Amino acid sequence: MAQIGIRIRIEYFAVLREHVGRAQEEVSTTATTVAELFAELERRYAFPALGRVKVAVNDEFRDWQAPLQDGDFVVFIPPVAGG
Amino acid sequence: MAQIGIRIRIEYFAVLREHVGRAQEEVSTTATTVAELFAELERRYAFPALGRVKVAVNDEFRDWQAPLQDGDFVVFIPPVAGG
Amino acid sequence: MSHFAFSRLPCTPEHYRALVSDPVAGGYASFEGWVRNHNDGRGVVRLEYEGYEALGVKEGERIVAEAFTRFPIAKAHCVHRLGVLAIGDLAVWVGVTAAHRDAAFAACRYIIDEVKTRVPIWKKEHYAAGDSGWINCEVRPADAPA
Amino acid sequence: MSHFAFSRLPCTPEHYRALVSDPVAGGYASFEGWVRNHNDGRGVVRLEYEGYEALGVKEGERIVAEAFTRFPIAKAHCVHRLGVLAIGDLAVWVGVTAAHRDAAFAACRYIIDEVKTRVPIWKKEHYAAGDSGWINCEVRPADAPA
């Protein structure tokens, strides 16, 4: 059975942007949750150890088990350091 | 036996200045402590009720039982309200 | 440098802020007391501050010195206005810098709290109704002062 | 009025202070984070702040709204710099006015604490030795940040 992927837009910031080498990309994925998408990207890019990463979908913080839909905009948020 | 008085310079601030009607005066007194001096002035001027009054002698906070010496400079400090 | 001063002229916070700036300081906490248009339910039109300056400066300096002993801070300063003030005028300014914000906040709070209760300064409020009163002497505020 | 903003240009505290002034306010508490010339024992020559602005503004606004719910304050605002900053530059500004200073201090502290842990902003330090690192990602400070 052929898997039908969804298209996800991803934006990278800070240490992730520098590691991946670009600020944005669009990926086609069979991941159904943000956790699955992160695992897929980790295999592709071998992210550095980052401590506790959070995730936002469509500019709102979401749970790692949040489902993904075609056209979602996802940002992985490494530990912040404002101020 | 004739009592030998001492001369004390007093400065009044705020509500006491307005009540007494002047900012400074020099008094001749037989008071030996600041408490005695205050009692003497209270009889003369009938100070309004002021809550907890503090006292300074020669620009330092002192105890009410502090002794007085000729030439001392005394300020009675009504409740403060800075800020 | 002195750490406490009275001012008979309006205070500009930028001037005092520059006094406490420090390249080792990552945190700057400040407090300003402003003349409110009301107190204890009454309309206020202006204030007068009177100070016993010789003792007030000594006590203010002692308070800031205590803050340096209690908290790891870089610089601190406090200035209090005297004379006639209008609504919105700055009455008191406290600024503290420190490597970390915990110390900056704690020292700033310590200084303003102690200044309000220990420095010989008196405040006369002039009310919209035309009367006036010395706060804490003739007028007892129902709520804590700002 | 918005209560949280990012700025790519240098911030002047006087401008932001005016945003929170209020005739009912007797107390104004503010906090500023400045770029220090050192961190964790290393000489710092400049910083870069990067922000996820769309989410950052939402989260910043939520934090200030929480402060209004928790404390009886009159006005509050926070602004955070983005881009390249030099030593001594203002990185973050928080200002709160209230009738009384308890609320002004508590709300100011609440806002800076929450902004530092919740708003998606990242800081890259450039060191005197020539290298650089993203704080809390590649560089773990031994002490708490200011």
Q: What's the structural blueprint in terms of helices and strands?
A:
The complex is a heterotetramer, with 2 copies of chain A (83 residues) and 2 copies of chain C (146 residues).
Chain A: E1 6-11, H1 14-20, E2 24-29, H2 34-45, E3 54-57, E4 60-62, E5 73-77
Parallel strand pairs in A: 1-5
Antiparallel strand pairs in A: 1-2, 3-4, 3-5
Chain C: E1 4-7, H1 13-20, E2 27-34, E3 38-39, E4 42-51, H2 53-70, E5 75-81, E6 83-86, E7 90-98, H3 101-118, E8 121-127, E9 132-134
Helix pairs in contact in C: 2-3
Question: Keyphrases for this structure?
Answer:
heterotetramer; A: 83 residues; C: alpha+beta; four-stranded mixed beta sheet; elongated
Assembly state (oligomeric): heterotetramer
What profile does the largest beta sheet of chain C have?
A: 5 strands, antiparallel
Neighbour order of strands in the largest sheet of chain A: 2-1-5-3-4
User: From N to C, what is the helix and strand string of chain A?
Assistant: EHEHEEE
In whole angstroms, how far apart are the ends of chain C? 28 Å
- Percent helix range of chain A: 10-25%
pLDDT < 50 stretches of chain A: none
- N- to C-terminal separation of chain A? 51 Å
The number of distinct helices of chain C, counting runs of at least 4 residues, comes to 3
Number of discrete helical segments of chain A? 2
Give average pLDDT of chain A, whole number: 94
**What structural category do the secondary elements of chain C indicate?**
alpha+beta
> Can you tell me the residue ranges of chain C where pLDDT is under 50 for at least 5 consecutive residues?
none
Q: What is the overall shape of chain C?
A: elongated
Structural class of chain A: alpha+beta
Overall spatial form of chain A? globular
Q: Largest interface: which pair? A: C-D, 37 and 37 residues
Report Rg of chain C.
16 Å
- The rounded Rg of chain A comes to 13 Å
